[in-house]
Target: Pantothenate synthetase
Amino acid sequence: MLVFTTAAELRAHAEASRGAGRRLGLVPTMGALHDGHIQLVRAAATQCDEVVASIFVNPTQFNNPDDLRLYPRLPEQDTALLAAAGCTVLFMPSVEEVYPQPTVLRFDFGELERVMEGAHRPGHFNGVATVVSKLFHLSRPHVAYFGQKDFQQVAVVRQLIADLSFDLELVVYPTVREADGLAMSSRNRRLSPEARAVAPLLYQVLAQAASGVREGVGPAEVQARAQAALAQEPQFTPEYFEVADAQTLQPLTAYGPGRGVVLCVAAHLGGVRLIDNVVV
Amino acid sequence: MLVFTTAAELRAHAEASRGAGRRLGLVPTMGALHDGHIQLVRAAATQCDEVVASIFVNPTQFNNPDDLRLYPRLPEQDTALLAAAGCTVLFMPSVEEVYPQPTVLRFDFGELERVMEGAHRPGHFNGVATVVSKLFHLSRPHVAYFGQKDFQQVAVVRQLIADLSFDLELVVYPTVREADGLAMSSRNRRLSPEARAVAPLLYQVLAQAASGVREGVGPAEVQARAQAALAQEPQFTPEYFEVADAQTLQPLTAYGPGRGVVLCVAAHLGGVRLIDNVVV
Model:
C-alpha cells in the first residue's frame, strides 16, 4: 500500500493510473475506522483496480471545536486495517496540504441543507462539499464510496456530483451495525460504558418507527412516539427525529405512493453526538 | 476539427487524450467570436496538443432575460474561425445537455462578488462558477484560457480553482481592442452606428484614469473625474466606475506599495451593457 501525504503525489498517481486504464475507487474517511469503512474498502477492492482511501479529519465541516478536538485519531491501526482490506493507496494529508489558504467560496444546497444535520450544524455541508470536491479532484476516482449512515451527506454529495457534472459514480452501502443494533461510528469510541449500554435505544426507536410507517401510522404520530421513547432514557438529549422524504429530505406530513421515507435521528449521549437513520 | 454536442462525447475524448499523454487546452466561450477569443485559441494551439473550445450561451449567468435573448449567435461563422485558429475540438451543447435538471447548489464567493459585476448582476458568478466547473469536468484541461476583459470573472475562476483544488493552470490574456481602443466584445455587434461612434469613450476614460493613478491622484478623485467624463456623453448610462485592489477587487481609499490597482467600468450604451478595465 502506497502512503501519500501530499496532494502532488496523489494527483500524479491518479493521472498515471487513469492513463494506464486502471479503474479507481475512492473511499473518503476521517479515520478511526470501523467495519462500516472497511466494508466500503472491500467493495472498492472487488470492483476497482486501485482503491484510494483518504484519512483526513476535515476541520471545515466541524461546527463544534470540541467535536473536532476530540474526534478519535488512530493512524497506525487505520493503516493496518486498510492494507488488510485491499486498499492500495492511502492519502493522509495535513490540514495545510488540503487548505494551503483559507477557502473563500461557500456552497449552499438550499432546502437540502435547511433540515436535520444542515440545520443543526451550520456550515457543515459547505465543509463536506469543499473537501469532497478537493478529494475528487486530487484522486480522480471512477467510483466514490459512501456509507448510508450519513444519509443527508450522501444526498448532498449526489447533488454536488450532478450539479457540477463530476465524472464519477456514487456508490452507497448500508449502515453496518453492532450486534445490538448500534450503528457503527468513529464517535462510538468516545462513549462511556454507561452510555454505550443505552446507545442501542437509538436504533430500537428507529426500527419501531419504521414498523409504524409500514403500518400506516401518520408521520406526526410516528415522530411523537419516537420522541417519547427517546425521552424514556435520561442519558439521551434528543436533537431531532424526522420522518422525511427520502429524496428531498423534507419533513413529511403524509405518505405518498412511490415516495420513499427516511427516518433520521440525532441525539447527544454522554457528550457524544450520535446520528442514525432507516429507510422504509 | 471534431464537433461534439454531447457531454459523453467530450468526456470520452478528454479521457482518451489525457491517457495518450496529450496536453489539453480549454477556451470556454459564449460564441459570437472576435479577435479576443481567437487570440486565446491561437495561444492554446501553440501551448497544447489539443484545443477544446466551447460555445455555450450559459443561461444561468444571465440575470437579464433580454440580454440572454439578444446575445449574438453565429455558429457557422464561429466554427470556421475556430478551425482556422487551430481549435481541434468544438463543444457546442444544448442547454438540456449541460443542465439535464435544474441546479440546486449555489456558489457564494463572498466579498469578491459583492462588488461590480457581482453586485449589479445577482447570481451571475454562481452561473459562471457552475458552468465553468461543468466544462472543467467534461473537458479535463491541463490549461484553461480566459480573457482579462472579464476581470472579476477571472478572479472568481481563480478562486474556484484554488478552493476546490481543480488540477489545471489558469492562463489569462490581455484584452484585445479595436483600433480606436474599444474592447472587443460579442455585445459590440449589437451597437447602433451612433452608439459605436461614441463607445471608445469608455476606454479613453479608463486610460485617463490610469494616468491619474500613476500620477498619484487619489482614488476618490480619479473616480469622480472618470464619472464626470462619462457623464459628458448623454448616450452613456454609467453603472459603476471603480478604483479597486487588483487582488481583492475591493474599492480602494488609498494606494499602497506593491498593491496592484484595477480600474473597472460598466455602462449601458443604446441598450447594450459594456464593461472594460485597465490594470495599473
